[in-house]
Amino acid sequence: MGKSLVIVESPTKAKTIAGFLPKGFMVESSLGHIRDLPPSAKEIPAEVKKEEWGRLGIDVQNDFKPVYVIPSKKKQQVAKLKGLLKEATTLYLATDEDREGESISWHLLEVLKPKVPRKRLVFHEITREAIEKALENPRDIDERLVEAQETRRIVDRLYGYEISPVLWKKIAPRLSAGRVQSVAVRIIVERERQRQRFVRSTYWDILGLFRTREGADLPAALVSLDGKRVASGDDFDKATGKLKDTFTDGRAPVLVTEAMARDLAGRLRSDEWSVVKVERKPFVWKPPAPFTTSTLQQEANRKFRLTSRDTMRAAQRLYENGLITYMRTDSTTLSESAVRSARDLIGRRYGEKFLSPEPRQYATKVKNAQEAHEAIRPSGDFQLPEELRGEVSEIERKVYELIWMRMMACQMADARGHHLVVEVANKGGEKREIAVFRANGKAIEFPGYLRAYVEGADDPDQELADKETLLPDVSTGDPMDCSKLEPKTHTTSPPPRYTEASLVKELEANGIGRPSTYATIIDTILQREYVVKEGNSLVPTFMAFAVVGLLEKNFEELVDIEFTARMENELDAISLGEEKQLPYLKSFYFGRDGKPGLKPLVEKDIDARESCTLPLGKDSEGRAVNVRIGRYGPYLERDEERTSIPAGIAPDELTLEKAVDLLEKGAGGPRKLGVEPSSGKEIFVKVGRFGPYVQLGEAAGNGEKPRMKSLLPGMDPETVGLEDALKLLALPRSLGVDPETGVEVFADFGRYGPYVKRGDDTRSLPKDANIFDVTLERAIQSLKEEKKGPSWRSRGPTVLRELGVSTVTGAPVKLLAGRYGPYVTDGTTNASIPRDAKPEEVTLEQAIELLRARAAAGPPKKGGRFAKKSAGGASGGKKKQGAAPAANSPAAEAESPAAEAKPAGRGKKKGGSAESSAPQKPGKPAGKKTAGKSRKKVG
User: Fold this and answer.
1) pLDDT digits (tens, 9 = 90+) for 74-94
2) Among this protein's residues, is 161 annotated catalytic?
3) What pLDDT shows up at residue 572?
4) Comparing 265-269, 308-312, 859-863, which segment has the lowest mean pLDDT?
5) Do the Cβ atoms of 40 and 938 come closer than 8 Å?
6) Rounded mean pLDDT of 847-857?
7) Which residues does residue 438 pair with via DSSP β-bridges, in sequence order?
8) Mind spelling out the 3-state secondary structure of 771-824?
9) 151-196+498-603: what fold?
10) Given a cut of 70, is residue 123 above it in pLDDT?
């Protein structure tokens, strides 16, 4: 009997599937895509490089024919697959059932060119039943799905490779643009613009505490005065913060001021009070639908503060280990067998009364089969979450429990209860208004699905209690005692910044991108530092404002929300055979019916000055104050005055008043302190992006850096004198020679505080140590003390765990503690552990994926973890080591991966460019490096 070869994307999935297949089946992984567009200039074939379109990797002159290459890191795996195929009598392609999985299978056929029968297997859960069913019902490659995926890939490549160089030349090097990425950044920037325009308004009300004759307390808030409604938060425009012009009831509310509130509280407290209204309204809460990709990401972010990347990584592991169904899906439908299993488990675990009367099915949003056909749910026999402790990582267990609870809830009974409204009013009379106070209560009579699951809650039982607001039992006409009336002020708040959860929700609501790509998109905008995280909020940088401004002015159609949403619909139409690929690509790139395409847009004159200028207003003398974005970061500008913007100030926090204050303090120009005696050069005190510093002389024309030194903690740039500056510029301070070693000893102050140094040996001093008072004896004593933390140079990295043998290289894989934190190695390649990962939870499979991604990225550039960053936020040295995408992650579908932002160089264009005369960082003079030279590096 012949052998059958089954190919999947990842080693973990291969291992799981192999356990369900009979003898005679060989299972191997492709390690993701085995072929793709050239990831860098060096991967472009020589015969293609000479072509005008060669840098794109797409023949735009010949029906957009893509140039596919096998990356050097994948050639060994391709050879292995070809060898296994020689032994096989049948080839089964069991990649995932979405567009990208279909594309991977198509590429495998194109590269392997099998001469044996080939069959496509699709299943949305890795269970014995699902795999056996797939083997009984194989199909062919769906060419329409492949065409839709290829169209997406080509559009994303052209978008990133054509627009990114424009950003390099006009704003700063190492920036990037992307079809979904740029729209996501625009959405975040627009929210920050709303926050900048927002006007905070203040209004008052009164909180009352009333007591029944039986002694029960009833807290209530003032809602009306003499029949007129009192203004509340709903009466203010959420976008502007101002009181609305029109109201739902057609009548303007009473805007209570502080004086009114205090006067009313004083006059009404002694009045007679009684219950004037008791209203009870029943409510029914229905359970939410089972998870899709986007709702899982949103809920995991709300509950566990997990990033979209972390959530998808955990879900990927759970799927590959056969614990959940396929995790990239837009569908909320459920199979009949899944519904039956859930309802059986609910009956046993919670009781029959908690079951919904009839099985529930939820309508799906998608109109075609481009994603998996079922919601995310536990697979197989719905293993209990508590049974997974110790079997998977803690993050994976939490994500599984979330999926499990949501699946249980969707087949459970509705929650039922009632809302209760109680109003209390005074008797009124001469000089006393009739004031009405309202209390809102809520009681849950039957918890239903809330017994298993409450959105955003870690503990359903605790959250169930928190959802109730019980009020005392009262009736209309009951007398009440007023024990307290307290004036309360309120201030309107600007629209909240996006979190990962709310951004994913916004993208999905507008049809932008696909849920399977959201994790990669958010990773990209964080890595490019268009956005930084402040707690759980996504805060745009000034660089993001400049980039979005340029794109809005010159590529409005391409950063329009409707364009991105329309493209998703057109890709759906291509996958259904309703539209053709070529007409769409021609329209996108060359234009049609008078509408310009991408190519003519990037070739027009572009003046970036307006985009790189953000007006803040005019000062008291009528001088314009602007934020300018230069090649070395953002700075403030007023006539000829300039000063850097301190790091950490968000755009909406930089008001006109604050900007004027910064200009007055730091940018009235460098303050001259005097002349350094030995060189005759002038000494200045300046304020830069990273704080105040002193500088000896000016930058030389040959690019030589002037001597600079930051002020010590406690030093005021307004009062620092020449003597202080000379001391700082003389650092490091020589303390003498160590009599035992004959090596000179120095004292200095660095980014982590004061320290002493002898050769390569250093020791930190206490934070309050004065380096100008440190003696040689004190320094030698400190140098004799054991160095805190692992001594990297003397002991090298420490082995934390032996993880096993790599299924890719055959080499042992180890987890080590190094100078910059934990990392994994196979003896040839090293890969950092993501900062949010726990070293004790790292598995062999995760390590292999990290090493594979690190190897695929090529050798690290010069520089290090603390290499200085350019204006765009990209490191001048080694890139940040992020979490490696899973083998079948949608990196290629994410419209502009890191490599996509680095095409080969382009010729110069006409038009102005952003000025590069911003105040510089200490130690970083303006050089002659151009965007063109930067492109030469990567191209």
Assistant:
1) 899 999 999 999 999 999 999
2) no
3) 86
4) 859-863
5) yes
6) 79
7) 221, 423
8) CCCCCHHHHHHHHHCCCCCCCHHHHCCEEEEEEEECCCCCCEEEEEEECCEEEE
9) Topoisomerase I; domain 2 (1.10.460)
10) yes
3-class DSSP string for 373-393: CCCECECCCCCCHHHHECCEC
Report yes or no: 16 and 321 within 8 Å, Cβ to Cβ: yes
CA distance 329 to 366: 9
Q: What is the CATH number of domain 202-286+416-491?
A: 2.70.20.10
The arithmetic mean of pLDDT across residues 893-920, rounded, is 38
Closest to 110 in 3D by CA, of 69, 51, 165, 139: 69
Of the residues 159, 161, 319, 326, only one is catalytic, namely 326
Nearest CA to 643 among 691, 684, 595, 610? 691
CA angle 510, 455, 465 (to 5 degrees): 150
Tokens at 370, concatenated: 């481009």
pLDDT of residue 866: 32
Task: Identify the pLDDT of residue 865.
Answer: 32
What is the arithmetic mean of pLDDT over 794-817?
73
Residues 6+ apart with CB under 8 A from 434: 225, 226, 227, 425, 426, 427, 428
DSSP assigned state of 371: S
Q: At what angle do helices 500-509 and 179-197 cross, to 10 degrees?
A: 110
Between 931 and 529, name the one with better pLDDT.
529
Band (pLDDT 50/70/90 cuts) for residue 875 is very low
Using pLDDT thresholds of 50, 70 and 90, give the confidence band for residue 937.
very low
For residue range 504-519, what is the model confidence (pLDDT) as tens digits?
999 988 888 877 788 8
pLDDT of 142 reads: 93
Per-domain boundaries in the chain: 3-35+70-141, 151-196+498-603, 202-286+416-491, 295-407, 613-666, 683-784, 797-896
299-313, 618-632, 802-816: which range is least confident on average? 802-816
Instruction: Please tell me what DSSP assigns to residue 933.
Output: H
Buried b or exposed e, range 528-560, using 16+ CB within 10 angstroms? bbbbbeeeebbbbbbbbbbbbbbbbebbeebbe
The DSSP symbol for 825 reads: E
For the chain, the straight-line distance linking the first and the last C-alpha, in angstroms and rounded, comes to 52
295-407 belongs to CATH 1.10.290.10: yes
Concatenating the DSSP letter of every residue in 283-347 gives EEEPPPPPB-HHHHHHHHHHHH---HHHHHHHHHHHHHTTSBB-S--------HHHHHHHHHHHH
Q: Which residues, 6+ apart, have CB-to-CB distance to 586 below 8 Å?
A: 64, 592, 597
For residue 858, the model assigns a pLDDT of: 61
- Residue listed under structure tokens 């009684």: 274
Residues 6+ apart with CB under 8 A from 86: none
Question: β-pairing, 798-805 with 812-818?
Answer: antiparallel
Confidence of residue 541 (pLDDT cuts 50, 70, 90): very high
How far is CA 756 from each of CA 507, 707, 751, 765, 769, rounded to the nearest angstrom?
52, 21, 13, 7, 11
Two domains, one topology: 3-35+70-141 and 151-196+498-603: no
Whole-angstrom Cα distance, residue 589 to residue 497? 34
pLDDT at 757: 93
Instruction: Kindly report, residue by residue over 151-191, the tens digit of the pLDDT.
Output: 999 999 999 999 999 999 899 888 899 999 999 999 999 99
The residues, ordered by sequence, that sit 6+ positions from 794 with a Cβ below 8 Å of its Cβ are none
**Hey, how many other C-beta atoms are within 10 angstroms of the C-beta on 787?**
14
Average of pLDDT values for 814-838?
A: 81
The upper half-sphere exposure of residue 788, i.e. CA atoms within 13 Å in the direction of its Cβ, equals 6
Q: CA-based angle 67:71:75, to the nearest 5? A: 120
- The domain 3-35+70-141 having CATH identifier 3.10.560.10: the answer here is no
* Residues of the chain by 3-state class (helix, strand, coil), percent to 5: 35, 25, 40
- For residue 507, the surrounding DSSP H or E stretch is helix 500-509
> Angle at which helices 515-527 and 179-197 pack, to 10 degrees?
70
Q: What is the mean pLDDT of the chain?
A: 83
